[in-house]
Design brief:
By secondary structure, the protein is an alpha/beta fold. Helix content is 27%, strand content 24%. The chain has 9 helices and 18 strands. The protein has an 8-stranded mixed β-sheet, sandwiched between helices. It has a 4-stranded parallel β-sheet with strand order 15-16-17-18. Helix 2 packs across helix 3 and helix 3 packs parallel to helix 8.
Length: 348
């Protein structure tokens, strides 16, 4: 185990009992399509609506809970940074300290799966943190933002949502942050889980299919400047980037072929990188894990593991990059990465 390692928390199976007569839900807007309207200065839609604007047009919301609404940022989600998300998390934790039964972030869907995963690494409270957004702007026919926000509020209010960490609520479906994935660029049902969905909201009722899993919680990183590069393997790709990675990066995540494989040319250059920084290899496919003991050729998993590479298992390359950044920012190493992977599956 690494020094100052993250802690594994076995999640309680008991439901969380609300004690407040009038529960409080805190909602922060970070921007995204859910807040976008047509711009007079430019073509297309841009973030304009505040968290208060969204709440004011949401029907029957006042009968569900006290609402604390705040606009933290008004940005497309691709503009968000790790530092901004940690600032939002600090606000969320303060809201819980002040009595919130749950917290909701609204943001753009382009990076929502990454934001949710990052937040989950640092969310150690029993109160749920829900992240939602929209695929259609508020003025479009069939706009989904208000529906998603209302479903997120129902999810945050449910006593069954306690001890489940960070969840994504989109299209009346609940996804665990660790498994949530945007699978379509434009469709309303664009979000799915790697595996079966975690739960649903139907007829105003929140239903979960699984108990809370164990999760690893890390402190906020004391160093936010760690640089972890994500590099995808492609047929006959250039490998010159590895010289820059070795010189300027603190970690490398490779989105590998198939079950976690790299090209022969990449393999030939990787030893210098491995000796200097941690290297994680994931699969670039959308489903399934990396292998560990199937393929034996150079650049396949048996060879890579023997040389010091850590395989990413079921974790996507995008999320592996965030996890490695958080681990390195806490002064930890590959053992903590492997420890996190143990929380994802049961069995060996």
């Amino acid at each position: 185990m690494d020094k100052n390692d993250g802690k594994i928390i076995a999640q309680p199976q008991k439901t969380h009992k609300r004690t407040q007569m009038d529960p409080k839900i805190s909602i922060a807007s970070l921007g995204g399509t859910i807040s976008m309207t047509p711009s007079q200065k430019a073509q297309g839609i841009t973030p304009k609506l505040s968290a208060e604007d969204l709440i004011n047009v949401l029907p029957d919301i006042k009968g569900l809970a006290q609402i604390e609404a705040k606009s933290l940022f008004s940005l497309p989600s691709g503009y968000l940074s790790f530092e901004m998300l940690i600032e939002a998390l600090q606000w969320a934790k303060e809201q819980v300290k002040q009595g919130a039964s749950g917290v909701i972030f609204t943001q753009g869907t382009d990076t929502l799966e990454e934001s949710a995963f990052l937040c989950d690494l640092f969310w150690d409270l029993p109160e749920p943190l829900i992240i939602t957004g929209a695929m259609r702007a508020p003025e479009e026919i069939g706009a989904d933002g208000l529906r998603n926000l209302r479903s997120a509020i129902l999810c945050a209010l449910s006593p069954h949502s306690a001890h489940r960490g960070v969840m994504v609520v989109m299209n009346d479906t609940i996804h665990l942050a660790r498994w949530a994935r945007k699978s379509h660029s434009l469709m309303v049902d664009s979000f799915c889980s790697d595996g079966k969905s975690y739960g649903v909201i139907a007829e105003g009722k929140v239903v979960y299919f699984y108990p809370p899993p164990p999760k690893m919680v890390l402190p906020f990183p004391y160093d936010l400047n760690k640089k972890v590069f994500l590099w995808e393997q492609v047929l006959d790709g250039d490998v010159g980037i590895l010289e820059w990675v070795e010189r300027d990066c603190d970690g490398l995540v490779i989105s590998g072929f198939g079950a976690g494989h790299i090209s022969l040319r990449a393999s030939d250059l990787l030893d210098k990188v491995i000796q200097k920084i941690p290297v994680i290899v994931c699969t670039r496919t959308t489903d399934g894990p990396t292998a560990y003991h199937t393929y034996g050729y150079k650049g396949a998993e048996i060879d890579l593991i023997a040389r010091g590479v850590c395989m990413g298992g079921y974790l996507s390359a995008r999320k592996a990059r965030i996890l490695l950044w958080a681990i390195l920012g806490n002064g930890l190493g590959k053992d903590s990465f492997k420890q996190y992977l143990q929380t994802l599956t049961i069995g060996s």
